[in-house]
């Protein structure tokens, strides 16, 4: 198995991470996950632009252009023969003696990328899944795709312990996002999701759905909604790179509407599938 390590493709077994890597010690770094369908990257430019944006926000300078990274990823996917999967990209601030503060001049970022096989979760996508709600205890820069995922990890763990797919977070009374997905509600035909600000990660899938809807004249609103609105919605769904467009049919053991995936969600699912096929083939 090959991976990308600091700009070169190498065998995974030859790579060792330093115990003083700041990603390892402080979670000091950022990451991306890009979907591979039919051996092709889906919305790679959007993900790589966000990678650069996240890096810039925490003062990490990635020494490669988007084009260079994309070419490396394409080579990696071909070399590893991945058809359905993901590529994980991580950039840590690099290696230096342990100290909270950092010097950008003397520390070279550590850039890695590797692929994994991942099937489309067909059954969950067609039947829908359950979720819990949980207080959002994260910091105030959730727009940065940072390696600091402890609150997200604990939230997802609680969901899994309760046999649920996702933990939907709320701050005060506002629903923000899932532990690794964006949240949408449908009420009387109106489709709503939290605005893209510092309280959520502006999902690439979220942006794709918003743009498809805009193109087709399907009205969407980027507006805050409450946990009450979530529980009383006609339909609820999640979006994310590996989550795709996932119907939520039960929240906190309470059925959403009649407890089956709704027509708006199903329509958005099929439009999203068409978008994937238009880029990566059927
Ligand atoms: N919100 C959070 C906290 C996430 O971790 C993710 C993805 O992992 C998303 C939203 C969805 O983003 P994307 O559609 O870019 O995968």
Task: Provide a short characterization of the protein structure.
By secondary structure, the protein is of the alpha+beta class.
What does this structure look like?
The chain has helices spanning 22-26, 44-57, 66-80, 122-127, 150-161, 204-215, 227-231, 263-280; strands at residues 2-5, 8-11, 29-37, 40-41, 85-92, 110-117, 129-135, 166-171, 174-178, 182-187, 190-193, 220-222, 235-240, 244-251, 254-255. It contains 8 helices and 15 strands. The longest helix is centred in the last third of the chain and has 18 residues, at 263-280. Helix 6 (204-215) crosses helix 8. Helix 5 (150-161) links the parallel strand 7 and strand 8. The strands form 2 sheets. Strands 7, 8, 9, 10, 11, 12, 13, 14 and 15 form a 9-stranded mixed sheet that branches. It folds into 2 domains: 2-117, D-amino Acid Aminotransferase, Chain A, domain 1; 122-280, D-amino Acid Aminotransferase, subunit A, domain 2 (D-amino Acid Aminotransferase, Chain A, domain 2, Alpha-Beta Barrel). Residues 33, 152, 177, 180-182, 201, 203-206, 239-241 line the site of pyridoxal-5'-phosphate.
């Amino acid at each position: 198995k090959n991976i990308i390590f600091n700009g070169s493709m190498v065998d995974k077994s030859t790579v060792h991470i330093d115990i003083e890597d700041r990603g390892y010690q402080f979670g000091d770094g950022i990451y991306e996950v890009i979907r591979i369908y039919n051996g092709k990257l889906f919305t790679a430019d959007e993900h790589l632009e966000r990678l650069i944006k996240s890096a810039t926000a925490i003062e990490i300078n990635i020494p490669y252009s988007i084009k260079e990274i994309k070419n490396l990823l394409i080579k990696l996917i071909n070399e590893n023969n991945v058809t359905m999967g993901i590529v994980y990209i991580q950039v840590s601030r690099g290696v230096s003696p342990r100290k909270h503060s950092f010097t950008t001049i003397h520390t070279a970022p550590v850039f890695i990328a590797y692929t994994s096989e991942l099937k489309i979760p067909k059954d969950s996508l067609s039947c829908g899944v359950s979720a819990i709600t949980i207080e959002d205890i994260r910091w105030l820069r959730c727009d940065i795709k940072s390696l600091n995922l402890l609150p997200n990890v604990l939230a997802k763990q609680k969901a899994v312990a309760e046999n649920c797919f996702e933990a939907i977070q709320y701050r005060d009374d506002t629903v923000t996002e899932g532990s690794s997905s964006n949240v949408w509600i449908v009420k009387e035909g109106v489709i709503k999701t939290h605005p893209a600000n510092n309280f959520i990660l502006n999902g690439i899938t979220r942006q794709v759905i918003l743009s498809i809807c805009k193109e087709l004249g399907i009205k969407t609103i980027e507006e805050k909604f409450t946990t009450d609105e979530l529980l009383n919605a006609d339909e609820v769904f999640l979006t994310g790179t590996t989550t795709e467009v996932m119907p939520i049919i039960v929240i906190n053991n309470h059925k959403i509407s009649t407890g089956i995936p709704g027509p708006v969600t199903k329509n958005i699912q099929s439009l999203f599938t068409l978008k994937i096929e238009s880029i990566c083939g059927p």
